[in-house]
Amino acid sequence: MTAADTPAEVGGDAKAEPPHGWRLFFIWLILSLAASLVIWFAWKPHLPPGDMSSSARHQQFDIAVLAVAGAPVVIGVVLYFIYAIVVWRAKPGDDSDGAPIHGNTAVQATWIIGTSAIVLFLAVFGTVELIGPAGAGAGEGPSPIWTLAGTNSATWTPGNNHILQVQVIGQQWVWTYRYPQFGGFESTVLDLPINTPVEFHVTSLDVIHSFWAYKLGVKADANPMVDNVAFTTPEALGGFEVRCNELCGIWHGAMYNSGQVMTQSGFETWATGVRAKEQASGVLAALPPFALTYDPTVIPQLGKNLVKIVGVTGAAGYFYGPSNPVQP
Amino acid sequence: MSVPARAAALIVAFLLVVGLGVFVAYYYIGSATTQLTTVHYAASRGTVHVVLQEDPQNNTATRPDWVSYYTQDPTSKQWIHTTLFSVPANTRVDVTIYGYDGCTPLRNNYWSKVQGTLGDTVTVQQFDKNNHPIGGPKTTGLINSWSDCNVGHTFAIPDLGVFVPVASPNAENSVNNLCSSSPCTPTSGGAYSLETFSFMSPAQTGPYRWQCLIPCGGGFLHGNGGPMQTLGWMTGFMYVDAT
Questions:
Q1: What is the DSSP code string of A27-69?
Q2: Cβ A172–B228 below 8 Å, yes or no?
Q3: How do residues B204-237 score in pLDDT, each as one tens digit?
Q4: Closest residue in A to B230 (Cα–Cα)
Q5: Do A180 and A167 meet the contact criterion of CB atoms below 8 Å apart?
Q6: Nearest residue of A to residue B168 by CA position?
Q7: What is the spatial distance between Cα B152 and Cα B99, in angstroms, rounded to a whole number?
Q8: N or C terminus: fewer CB in 10 A for chain B?
């Protein structure tokens, strides 16, 4: 038998082949539509990270779009695989060769055009979704290209669309948060007002950490001496956790605390209350002037006059430098 | 080699590799946890009294130059080189810390503020090298480590919101007068501070890690390694047991 001989030609009594292509297409179309509807209407509302903020909502939307775009491809591959096994499997006693495969320009063109269109769409879609929500909740570095709409102000009051600035400070192994528009008080909880553009300034006092407010859809590296800016707008009331997402030492896994999205008036009450409390306790005056970064190695640069006492053991009033006395 | 012999050799080799992995894991995990003693504090009339000290050195042969906490056994009053201790749940915990190490400024002066203790305060009394008190005890909610060199380390249990700056000996008095042999005692010839505070243990039982927030690992990059990251030195667990 030559390669050109098909079983039908050899046997002469084979039935006409059914329209496999159309069969596959219709099954694929139905399954893809069903999967897309399930993804969009049943799965999307539960997809991480939720919709607590503008960036989180966009991320949830992005994941759903990717799933809807990817589902037909996955279904097409798996469907063809199963169809081939079921329909084109060798029958018992049939030792003949399979039909030779010739090129099919239409199939190849459809595949290339279809996948190219998907990839190009995703590239454009991804760019739009990066720019639209001002960096998609990721750190943009010290000079962010995309920012949220809002008014920059030295103070923050409810109802004025002022951008709230929050400095996120990582150190082994605790997060703290400074609010420069409220006298620069510092807190171990990250409270935010709803429907307010928030500008996070993320930095570190020692090693590299990563600020990850998962439910807010915000993640930005915290590097010493670097001001990493990220944006989001909280859109739902409730609590959330902040975790470190960069392996930073023995207690990396325990480096988390919490925050709360509250009403704008409730936030103002909380912030002014904490500021007053820290003023009264004296810690507000003990903090360095607010700056976008802090040099972790040299106290005088933090703006305070440290009493230096010659001869004091320990660190002699200064931090251990990177070469004091030797590297491990 | 026959098929059964090859199969047997394969199984033996596989078991050897698995056994080696288990041994290594057990060895390292075991070496990290089982050598530390846990000091158990029992409540008396609803209160436990935890006693710690922090020293500029320690009495181990392997890391003698590391700063370290010690925990006092409530029965024998012996100082145990461990940072693991247990307290009952829902109990007032009175803590006494002897600060024998010199001062180091806080990297974040926010931790100068006493947080999470009853009244958000601590009481500090400093002593000179002859064990004579310097002034009287002072109750304060802030020990500003930047306005004067008077904070040695901190005692923090982040999950409970407990952040306590631990006073160092008076800076002038501690010049060349720190305790040099651990565990230190008030009469061992070094100036020291005595700090007390209280907090409530939580209702939820389990381990609560505690740590120092002053990077005090000399010889490590910016002081962050060594004793800062090793159980038994400047970090540990407070185990909260059922009452």
A1: HHHHHHHHHHHIIIIIIGGG-TT-SSBHHHHHHHHHHHHHHHH
A2: yes
A3: 999 999 999 888 877 777 677 888 888 999 999 9
A4: A250
A5: yes
A6: A314
A7: 7
A8: N
The torsion region of residue A105 among left (phi > 0), alpha (psi -120 to 50) and beta comes to alpha
B39 HSE (CA, 13 A, CB side): 24
Closest CA to A114 of A86, A160, A77: A77
B161 and A188 within 8 Å at the Cβ level: the answer is yes
Q: Is A12 on the interface with B (CB under 8 A)?
A: no
> Phi first, then psi: what are they for A210, rounded to 5°?
-140, 120
What pLDDT score was predicted for residue A297? Answer: 64
Q: Which tokens hold the place of B76?
A: 């024998």
| Whether A147 contacts chain B with CB within 8 A | no
Q: State the pTM of this model.
A: 0.84
| Average pLDDT score, chain B | 89
pLDDT single digits (tens) A152-171: 999 999 999 999 999 999 99
Structure tokens at A40: 């969009």
Please report which residue ranges of chain A form alpha helices under DSSP H.
Answer: 7-11, 20-37, 54-87, 105-131, 264-281, 283-286
The residue of chain A with its CA nearest to that of B111 is: A283
The residue with greater pLDDT, A211 or A249, is A211
A283 touches chain B (CB under 8 A): yes
Q: Widest CA span of chain A, in angstroms?
A: 106
What letters, b where the CB count within 10 A reaches 16 and e where it falls short, cover B106-136? bbbbbbbbbbbbeebbbbbbbbbbeeeeeee
Helix (H, G, I), strand (E, B) or coil at A218: strand
Residue in A closest to B174 by C-alpha? A312
B105 with A283: Cβ contact below 8 A:
no
- Which pairing describes strands B192-200 and B92-99: parallel, antiparallel, or unpaired? antiparallel
Which ranges constitute the DSSP H helices of chain B?
3-33, 171-174
Torsion from C-alpha of A19, A23, A24, A27, nearest 10 degrees: 180
Q: Which residues of B touch A317 (CB under 8 A)?
A: 103, 105, 149
Using a CB-CB cut-off of 8 Å, the residues of chain B touching A321 are: 222
Encode pLDDT of B49-90 as tens digits. Answer: 999 999 988 888 888 888 999 999 999 999 999 999 999 999
A193, containing H or E segment = strand A190-193
Answer for the pair A171, A253: CB distance below 8 angstroms, yes or no: no
A320 close to B215: Cβ distance less than 8 angstroms: yes
The encoded tokens of residue A110 equal 């459809």
Can the peptide bond before residue A49 be classed as cis, meaning omega within 30 degrees of 0? yes
ipTM of the complex: 0.84
Determine which of A168, A169, A174, A302 to mutate to test the interface with B (most B C-beta atoms within 10 Å): A174
